[in-house]
Structures are given as structure tokens and as C-alpha cells.
């Protein structure tokens, strides 16, 4: 049932399309050009209450052309990679470049920075999964969750599996391609008591299907996470230490990286403007990216403009050691690119870790946050105020679930107030981290 | 204005003709997607042309153009959905996707085919290409005007970015229940964002809007100047803002965009799928009091030219005016065909999908609380100590527990019945059903937002509108830093 996907054939096809687009751009008068093309194919199934709900076969493709006429820039993209569409896209991008303004910083990355080491980072693990097998795995996951006492109903389990190819090429003669895969299984459950309904979920995700957790374990964990929320109260209003669950502390690192991103810095839209070299975290904390890690979520030997990626240390012994720059943002700031066009890859902590129990003990009386809601983070000022749910902690012990409150502070103050990091590392995303204990935040509850 | 037939012909010429198809060929396409055991199948053809122009540092530095399109084929059997799509609109693609979608669901009985019945619907906006309304020079000129106005407005403005974007979308739906419908949907938007720096403080302000009309209307309405001034005003207010209080207090919501709170706190919980599955905090409450007396909330796809409006939805059902809560009593859900059929209700024209590559589901269009009787100034006067929230960044809801969260991007303290200092970092949190019971005053100043909303659900984004009068919630938790 699953559609055949020949990644190598797709790679050749996309490469040919990218070269065709570059040649055409040159012929029609562009001084420089770059092309990104990708194709992804996958299957997604969802089940609910023991029945199949949806089966979805997906196949997405796209080609994007950016070209430069002098210092003017135009872009166009299409989901159809036929020769006619490529021609239309190049012509449209050229037409646009007649109207955009001169930008001294515009252009490709320097030719001397193009990646020359292009090892296979082993991120492609196709899964020959039939629809029926996918359904069975989702059903097994959901059933394990529904079997747990107290779960009143399921909100569904889903399995998705996909693979794809991407190509980036530019008129320096650089051409990079990468095949990749991604597989995930998730389950969301509902429990009910006199105080109302609660739901929660768990998921597993990996490039290699063999690295996925056991479906039944995911279902049971989803059940446990759901049940422990029943009977939630509201915490008191006041100032308390806050322990962020690993899935949420990776979000705090995300806010940090957004603040270090060149685009926010040259626009003066970052709370970390003019802070290079200054302390931000305690001195025991360092943070780096490892783009060449084998088999990891975000591994790539080249960045979004063909520049060789490298291990960047963004925070060194608590101080800001590097911004996160592309060629464009680097030129705007009078600096050099850090190979971060397209963001940071495989972000890792370098810090002493301790058990969650020891963090709870250190916290004493406070809040363990397991869910955040809303978008209350201001990247310009660092002001932070978000809805939350979690658990009330007294004497280092978890007491009862809490909900309908906010936690507020400022990111700079929160980073400086980082007390400790847990060894409960969440490895599902591109950022790996354990729990974070922050010394004090304002809690608004009852 | 029931320009119906012409829309189908136009859409067919744009979507089908290039791939060698015509309306008759869709019968064959549907045949592949039906087969034994399938209750319903539909073909959704779509093509979009998108354009975006961005100004930064007083120059238009970025402009992009995107063409997307294809066909999505869906086969339904009971609660099961099979779905496949292709970005080719050809006979081969219809056969492949149809067989794939149908092959996924294979139980039940065969239903008789239905005769084609073209849907007749009122047009809620002009079926035009909005991108063609202005020349490239005029688009650049609008952006530069916004930049000049913002920079001239105040010396503290250090950065100005402005964007102009538009989408021309053509859709055609053919379903096994006989539905044949088409829609030509323009959508445009203009946005200005500024950074103000003063005494070492840096704050952002932004403003924007648009709707389902030509880019020429944005120029004619002089939105570049209007939104530039509004963005500067907001940034200057935020430069003076003090820390928001923390704790429970009365909250007054301004008219217009703060209606996003209703969208989150109530709207999502009234979508048919969540209620069929029993996962909404509003499930099983039809006919019960779920909000204070005086609260009437409708989902209205029929508002002329509004960002969330739909002449027909993505299943070909005409866009409608759907009362959800009337004088505090729950009276309606928003439905697509699948959930309506399974719940024994009628579709309400709320089936929406991000694109042909996504499955439709019940979604809001323009969600609005109707006007009450109160004078807005009396509402402010009635509060001893609380918050006046004028604009919001974004919000989120957990439809199961009913908890919602919003971040105010412009808010003020109310002290002794007067609006006083601006506050920053005010997040509001509450429980939808409870918050709606605490609405105690409703202004007569109902207003729609300016056309900026994007609603996300299960990873799919669609444009929406919201609206409300000034209203007072007796108690809500405000999450500032001053406890």
C-alpha cells in the first residue's frame, strides 16, 4: 500500500532540477543564484477508541530560487518542479529583483566558506511500513494507555513515518544533498473525575525506527501523565522557585537562541543586543551545537547557504561566546558567519547534572512546571509570562497537581538564576537538555 | 450577487484545463475514490499564488512569489478517513490518489451515486486576483510610505519593518453527494512593526490588517500611514509601561481584536469534532447555560470582505451565520460534513483546510460576540482596580480542561475607575466556561478586528476574523511580575 520512494533517484532528479534552475538564472541575466529543492514522502495514521480514524499518504515537494542582480534580490518558489515551473519561478524572481532596493549586504555566502567536507551523517533510515502495520502500532500504543485504570477515553494515537531528500546548490558551484527520515508515535488520553476532564500525552520520535520507544510504554506514560493531573488546584500567588520539565527547558534554550540569532540582533529586536562576551548564566554552564553528530535530529555538514557547519560554543562558562549568524546577518553586524543559516543544529549542554529528586530537594517549596501555554515571551525585552500547569512541591516532595496559573519573569534574570540542571535529558528534539531549576519567578494563581 | 456558475467555469478553466481535465472527468475521478463501503468521497482542487514584499532599513529588500496547487482526495467510511493528494492535476493523479484514498477504508455497504447539484451560494467577496490590484512600483511605494511616516512620527523609532502580502486562491470541490462548488478567494494584508529605543529601553509596536479584497483597497484606504502611526503609538506606550500586577482582578477587554479571547476560550470548544469525541469542556452541554445572560456569540462566515469569510467552505457548503451561544445558552456547534453526519446534525459551512494537502475539519470563520447595552466608559468606571487589555499577541486553549491563556501586547491599569499606567507582560489565564459566566457588562461598541488573525489547529493554519464589544470579566487571573 505504501508508495515506493526511491531516495537516490529523487536525489538525482532534484540535483538535475537545481542545476537546471541555476543555469537558467545565469542565462537570463542573474549575477548569482541559489536553489533549494526538497521532496518528502510519508504515511500518517491515527486511531481513536480502538478504531482507525485517518490514514494519510503524503508527498510534498518544492523548489525555491533566490537570485541576485547586482545587489538586488528576488525569490520565487513552486511546489511543482517541472521545467516549465522552474522557468516561471526564475523569470518571476528576476522580475521581482527589478523592484527590490540595492542592499550592500545581499548575496551568497563567500565562496571560500563553502563546505568541502560532506560526510554521510547517517540520518536516513527508511521504514518499510505497510498501512496495516502502522495501524497496529498505533492501536497497540493506544490500547496500553486505555488499559490503565482511570483513563476514561482516548483522544487518539498517531503514527507518522516519512523520508525525504533535500538539495541546496548555488552559483559558486556548491551542491549539497542530504537524505533523511523521521518517525514518530504519539498518544493522547483523557481522564475524568468530579473536578472535570484532563488530558495529556506522550510521544517518541527518532530518525531510526529502531530507536523509537516501545508503543505500549508510550501509551502507559501518556496515561500516567494524564491521571496525575486529576484534581488540580490553583497555587498561591507569590514568588517561588520553578523547576521546568525537560520538554520545557528546551524551550528556554530556544528563547536564548532566538536572542542570539543574527536577524534579531541587526534589527535591534533582541534582548541580547550588545551582550557578546558578557555573563548571562552561572559560570558552570556552557552550551554548544554539534552539527556533525552521527544520526542526530539536526545533523548537516552544510548550512542553509552551503557554508561548512562547525561546533559552535554559544555560551562558554556562563558568558555569551558567540552569536548565531548567517552571511547576511554577519555582514549587517560587521562579523563573520558562524554557519548558522537555518538555525542551530544539535544543541547540547556542557554542565554538571543532578537527579530530578535532588533538584526538587534543592527547591524545597515551589512549582514543578510540566506544561506551558500561550505566547507570552517578548524577544525584544526578554519579558516572560506564560500560562502553566504542573505540581506543587513542599519540602522537596511533589504534593498535588496545579493548573490555571502563570509564571512570569525576565529571561535574563531567569538565566542568571539557573540553580541546577537535571540528568533527565530529553533527547527527542534537536536541543537535548534535562530539567532546569530557576531560583525565583512570580506566580499568579489564587 | 449569486455569481455562481461563472465561478465554477472560471475555476475549472484555471484548475482543470491545463491538465487536460474537464468537469465531466471528475465523475471518473470520484469513481476511483468511492468503491464498495465508502460513504462519501470528495475531490478538492486548489491553486494559490502568493506574493510577499518586505521593507527593512527603508529599502524593500525581500520579495517572494510562490505558486502552490494540487488535488486532495478523501474517502470516508463511518468514522474512518482515507486521504491522499498530488500536486499534479491530471487524470493519472486522480486515479492514483483516488485509489489510494479508497483503498485505505474498506468496510460497509455501497451507496447509490448522487446526481451533480451545483451549490448556489452568495458571494461574500469579489472573485478577483488581489495581487493584480497594484503595480510593483505602487507596492514598493506603499512600503516606503509606511517607513517614512513611522520614522517621522517620533525620534525614538530606530527600526521600521513593513510587509505587504497577498494570496489569490482558486478552489473547486466535487463530492459524491452531488456537490459541485467553486470559490475564488482573494486575501491581502499590510503590516508595520517598529522598535522604539529611549533611555536604554527598547520596545516593539506593531499594527496591521487586511481582508478579502484587492491590494488596491489597501492603498485607497491609506493603511500604510494608518498602521505606521498605530505601530509607533503602541511602541511609545510600551516604552512607558510598568510591570503588570499578578493575581486575580477584574479585566476589561477593549472592542475588536481582544475577541481572540472568545475564539480561544469558547470557539474551539464548540467545534463539532471535539464535541463528537467528547473531548471538549463544552461537550454534552447543548441547551445549557454556559455564559452569563446577555452573552451572544456567533460564527459568521458571511461578513463582506472579512478575512475569515467564506462564500463556500472547503467542502462546498455555503458560508453561514451560525449562532453558538444565545443569551448565555449553548445553541450550536460548528460542523463539517463528517462530524455533522456522525452527530446527526447539519453542516454549518465550517469545513476548512490549510490546503489541498491537508484534511478539512470544523474551523471558525469570523467569531463574534454581539453588542450589548453598556456605555464603554461606564464599564471602565465600574472597576476599582483591574486591567484594561487593548491588544493581544496570541493565545492558546486546552479544549479538554477549558484552560486558556492570552498575552496582552497593550494593556493598562484601571485604578478607581480610570485608565492609568500602561503595563507590560500581562498574561491572562482562565477557564473558558467559568470566564464566560463572569461577563458582567457588555458594551454597545461591537467592532471587528482589522484582519490579522491566523488560527492554528492540528498543525493547520487558516485565516480567521474575530470581533466583540468592550466587555468586563469580573475576575480573571493576571500573570504579571508584581505580586
From TrEMBL, chain A:
<dbReference type="GO" id="GO:0005829">
    <property type="term" value="C:cytosol"/>
</dbReference>
<dbReference type="Pfam" id="PF01523">
    <property type="entry name" value="PmbA_TldD_1st"/>
</dbReference>
<dbReference type="Pfam" id="PF19289">
    <property type="entry name" value="PmbA_TldD_3rd"/>
</dbReference>
<keyword id="KW-0482">Metalloprotease</keyword>
<dbReference type="GO" id="GO:0008237">
    <property type="term" value="F:metallopeptidase activity"/>
</dbReference>
<dbReference type="InterPro" id="IPR045570">
    <property type="entry name" value="Metalloprtase-TldD/E_cen_dom"/>
</dbReference>
<dbReference type="InterPro" id="IPR047657">
    <property type="entry name" value="PmbA"/>
</dbReference>
<dbReference type="InterPro" id="IPR045569">
    <property type="entry name" value="Metalloprtase-TldD/E_C"/>
</dbReference>
<feature type="domain" description="Metalloprotease TldD/E C-terminal">
    <location>
        <begin position="237"/>
        <end position="445"/>
    </location>
</feature>
<feature type="domain" description="Metalloprotease TldD/E central">
    <location>
        <begin position="125"/>
        <end position="230"/>
    </location>
</feature>
<dbReference type="Pfam" id="PF19290">
    <property type="entry name" value="PmbA_TldD_2nd"/>
</dbReference>
<dbReference type="InterPro" id="IPR002510">
    <property type="entry name" value="Metalloprtase-TldD/E_N"/>
</dbReference>
<keyword id="KW-0645">Protease</keyword>
<dbReference type="InterPro" id="IPR036059">
    <property type="entry name" value="TldD/PmbA_sf"/>
</dbReference>
<feature type="domain" description="Metalloprotease TldD/E N-terminal">
    <location>
        <begin position="33"/>
        <end position="97"/>
    </location>
</feature>
<protein>
    <submittedName>
        <fullName>Metalloprotease PmbA</fullName>
    </submittedName>
</protein>
<dbReference type="InterPro" id="IPR035068">
    <property type="entry name" value="TldD/PmbA_N"/>
</dbReference>
<comment type="similarity">
    <text>Belongs to the peptidase U62 family.</text>
</comment>
<keyword id="KW-0378">Hydrolase</keyword>
<dbReference type="GO" id="GO:0006508">
    <property type="term" value="P:proteolysis"/>
</dbReference>
From TrEMBL, chain B:
<feature type="domain" description="Metalloprotease TldD/E N-terminal">
    <location>
        <begin position="41"/>
        <end position="102"/>
    </location>
</feature>
<keyword id="KW-0378">Hydrolase</keyword>
<dbReference type="InterPro" id="IPR025502">
    <property type="entry name" value="TldD"/>
</dbReference>
<dbReference type="GO" id="GO:0006508">
    <property type="term" value="P:proteolysis"/>
</dbReference>
<keyword id="KW-0645">Protease</keyword>
<dbReference type="InterPro" id="IPR035068">
    <property type="entry name" value="TldD/PmbA_N"/>
</dbReference>
<dbReference type="Pfam" id="PF19289">
    <property type="entry name" value="PmbA_TldD_3rd"/>
</dbReference>
<feature type="domain" description="Metalloprotease TldD/E C-terminal">
    <location>
        <begin position="247"/>
        <end position="480"/>
    </location>
</feature>
<dbReference type="Pfam" id="PF01523">
    <property type="entry name" value="PmbA_TldD_1st"/>
</dbReference>
<dbReference type="InterPro" id="IPR045570">
    <property type="entry name" value="Metalloprtase-TldD/E_cen_dom"/>
</dbReference>
<dbReference type="InterPro" id="IPR045569">
    <property type="entry name" value="Metalloprtase-TldD/E_C"/>
</dbReference>
<dbReference type="GO" id="GO:0008237">
    <property type="term" value="F:metallopeptidase activity"/>
</dbReference>
<keyword id="KW-0482">Metalloprotease</keyword>
<feature type="domain" description="Metalloprotease TldD/E central">
    <location>
        <begin position="130"/>
        <end position="239"/>
    </location>
</feature>
<dbReference type="InterPro" id="IPR036059">
    <property type="entry name" value="TldD/PmbA_sf"/>
</dbReference>
<dbReference type="GO" id="GO:0005829">
    <property type="term" value="C:cytosol"/>
</dbReference>
<comment type="similarity">
    <text>Belongs to the peptidase U62 family.</text>
</comment>
<dbReference type="Pfam" id="PF19290">
    <property type="entry name" value="PmbA_TldD_2nd"/>
</dbReference>
<dbReference type="InterPro" id="IPR002510">
    <property type="entry name" value="Metalloprtase-TldD/E_N"/>
</dbReference>
<dbReference type="InterPro" id="IPR051463">
    <property type="entry name" value="Peptidase_U62_metallo"/>
</dbReference>
<protein>
    <submittedName>
        <fullName>Metalloprotease TldD</fullName>
    </submittedName>
</protein>
